[in-house]
From TrEMBL, chain A:
Name of the protein in its database record: sn-glycerol 3-phosphate transport system permease protein
Main location: membrane
Biological processes, Gene Ontology terms: transmembrane transport
Organism expressing this protein natively: Limibacillus halophilus
Family, per entry: Belongs to the binding-protein-dependent transport system permease family.
Pfam families noted in UniProt: BPD_transp_1
Entry GO CC: plasma membrane
Compartment(s) of residence: Cell membrane
CDD domains in UniProt: TM_PBP2
Domain of life: Bacteria
UniProt membrane topology term: Multi-pass membrane protein
TrEMBL record, chain B:
Keywords associated with the record: Cell membrane, Membrane, Transmembrane, Transmembrane helix, Transport
Membrane topology value: Multi-pass membrane protein
GO cellular component annotations of the record: plasma membrane
All residue ranges annotated as the ABC transmembrane type-1 domain in the record: 69-259
Record localization: Cell membrane
Location, primary (coarse class): membrane
PROSITE patterns, alphabetized: ABC_TM1
GO terms (BP aspect): transmembrane transport
Listed Gene3D superfamilies: MetI-like (1.10.3720.10)
Transmembrane segments: 12-36, 68-92, 104-121, 133-154, 238-259
Superkingdom, natural source: Bacteria
Protein name stated in the entry: sn-glycerol 3-phosphate transport system permease protein
């Protein structure tokens, strides 16, 4: 202990870290703790200051049908977007990893949605879904179907949002699979060909298991995205009709900035933080596994 | 690779790959169609329809897109410069110094990868309002400047730089900071470029937090301006909305088409490490 090297390490280490640490504490750690504390208090008004109410906000949340609705929506949204976009991403990566006429153009086509803002994407897709004049209606009309208000119908609205999200995200996940495919040893494929393995068999028995670490990584990203990405709702549905397409983070936004109930918004945020913490635990277990593969 | 024969099944795959590509480009192709044709053709597809730039002119005059561009440009530049500076210092500390509490501090940094500022909108709004920063470009950028992702990425890169280089520089009489500046930063250039591209595209596209914290034309970035412009209740017609949308995404889209390979590689690089 002691010595000039030791002192130097302490001083330089902390001095270098200080600027970033200050901002991280101010905008990540402090607000996380403050959110938890706020969830035990009532929302204050000018006349009534906020006071400690214990678990009242949580009791209210459990009775709140909208909370359960958005939570269920969010789960369906995750179930609807994640497996589909991951499956399409694998398929895309396999395609553009091989010799393919116009491969560069195809790869660009898959990836382009990723660089567009969700707001712009929603603006374009809004037209697809609009009744009568929308592209979807124009196509279904050819087949003799009636006009349908895709985003105005509680039965179809969430599916519409899911389809758009898959379109936006599949190309992004493709990139990770492409990187993984390019790092697989070439000998494997040659051995498979010598053994006369069909492409299908080879994929399921060799490629897919070797892509497992990437799949874990992509899955975690996809789950996080399904909870934090709500931009499109502002354009497409505003969570409606009747909260049929609202998601947890969008509801938090509404409660905090439309209904001005900061305490209840904090309570809902605590639920979101718990869900993210759960994913974090999954992430570190998954990353452990990833290391074992190496 | 060369031994893949073009069997019928193979052709099916090629056609499949192309069809998905067409499907993936369709929304953009439609946006271009509607934006470059008169409004009466926005929903009617006629190859002989006349081309026009009228929609772009109308969109430009109906919303202060010029101002939104300046705001977004300022925002993205400010965030990137601050991120590069703060993350470099922190990453260097984590990669090269042994100090008390280092592992705990690193774990606390990584926590931000899970709890992004968009989740903490309620408390962060309160903080900004206490600081008197609501409706400023600084307030949009501040929560993102200490990027855990950037710190992590740079730390990984710095760790791969051999100790000998550092020792050699020290013998030459370099100070601690000039070692960082002359040895580490130049060698990490590919990481800086990758992180820069990811950061620029992320903040150019970011929406929820800028929406909450801004409320005037002089601070609003493009995404928020576009959302107000394109909202159904604003009563603007399709051709003009698509023209506005293309205006807003044009710089990033053009950059992407020009530097496609770098974009794709930077996302790969940023994701895997």
């Amino acid at each position: 202990m002691g010595g000039p090297r030791f002192i130097k390490n302490q001083v330089y280490g902390w001095l270098l870290l200080m600027p970033a640490a200050t901002l991280l504490v101010a905008f990540t750690h402090y607000p996380a703790v403050a959110t938890l504390l706020q969830s035990f208090f009532s929302s204050g008004t000018a006349r009534r200051p906020s006071k400690f109410v214990g678990l009242d906000n949580y009791a209210y949340m459990l009775e709140d049908p909208v909370f359960w609705k958005v939570l269920t929506n969010n789960l369906w949204y995750a179930v609807g977007t994640i497996p589909t976009s991951v499956a399409i991403a694998i398929l895309m990566a396999l395609w553009v990893n091989e010799r393919l006429p116009l491969r560069g153009v195809v790869r660009m086509a898959y990836f382009t949605p990723t660089v567009l803002p969700m707001i712009a994407v929603a603006n374009i897709w809004l037209f697809f879904y609009s009744p009568d004049i929308g592209l979807l209606d124009q196509v279904t009309r050819v087949f003799g179907f009636h006009s349908q208000n895709w985003l105005g119908d509680p039965d179809t609205v969430l599916a519409c949002i899911i389809v758009m999200t898959v379109w936006k995200e599949a190309g992004f996940f493709m990139i990770f699979y492409l990187a993984a495919l390019q790092s697989l040893p070439h000998e494997l494929e040659e051995a498979g060909r010598l053994e006369g393995a069909s492409r299908w068999y080879f994929f399921w028995r060799v490629t897919f298991p070797l892509l497992m670490p990437t799949t874990l990584f992509v899955l975690i990203n996809a789950v996080i995205n399904s909870f934090k990405l709500v931009d499109h709702l502002f354009i497409l549905t505003k969570g409606g009709p009747d909260n049929a397409s609202s998601l947890l983070l969008y509801y938090i936004y509404e409660v905090a900035f439309s209904f001005f109930d900061q305490s209840y918004a904090s309570t809902l945020t605590v639920v979101l933080l718990l869900l993210l913490a759960l994913i974090a635990v999954g992430k570190f277990t998954a990353l452990d596994k990833r290391i074992h593969y190496r | 690779m060369s031994a893949v024969r073009n069997t019928p099944g193979r052709w099916l795959e090629i056609i499949g790959a192309w069809m998905v590509a067409v499907l993936w480009l369709l929304p953009l192709v439609y946006a271009f169609w509607a934006a470059f044709h008169p409004p009466e053709y926005a929903t009617r597809f006629d190859l002989l329809a006349p081309l026009t730039l009228e929609n772009f002119a109308t969109a430009w005059s109906q919303a202060p897109f010029g101002r939104y561009f300046v705001n977004t440009f300022l925002l993205v530049t400010m965030i990137l410069i601050a991120q590069l500076f703060l993350c470099t210092l922190a990453a260097y500390a984590f990669a090269r110094y042994d100090f008390w509490g280092k592992n705990l501090a690193f774990a606390l940094v990584l926590l931000q990868l899970m709890i992004m500022p968009e989740v903490l909108i309620v408390e962060n709004y309160r903080t900004m309002s206490n600081l008197g920063l609501v409706d400023s470009i600084l307030a949009i950028g501040l929560p993102y400047m200490a990027s855990a992702f950037g710190i992590f990425l740079l730390r990984q890169t710095f760790k791969t730089i051999p100790k000998e280089l550092e020792d050699a520089a020290r013998i030459e009489g370099c100070s601690e900071i000039s070692i960082l500046w002359r040895v580490f930063v130049p060698l990490a250039k590919p990481t800086y470029i990758a992180f820069g591209l990811v950061s620029i595209s992320h903040h150019w596209n970011n929406f929820l937090w800028p929406l909450i914290i801004t409320n005037s034309v002089s601070t609003r970035p493009l995404t928020v301006g576009l959302a107000i412009f394109g909202a159904p209740e604003s009563g603007v017609d399709w051709s003009i909305i698509t023209a506005g949308t293309l205006l807003a995404v044009a710089p990033l889209l053009v950059a992407f088409l020009l530097f496609q390979r770098q974009f794709v590689q930077s996302f790969m690089h940023a994701g895997i490490k």
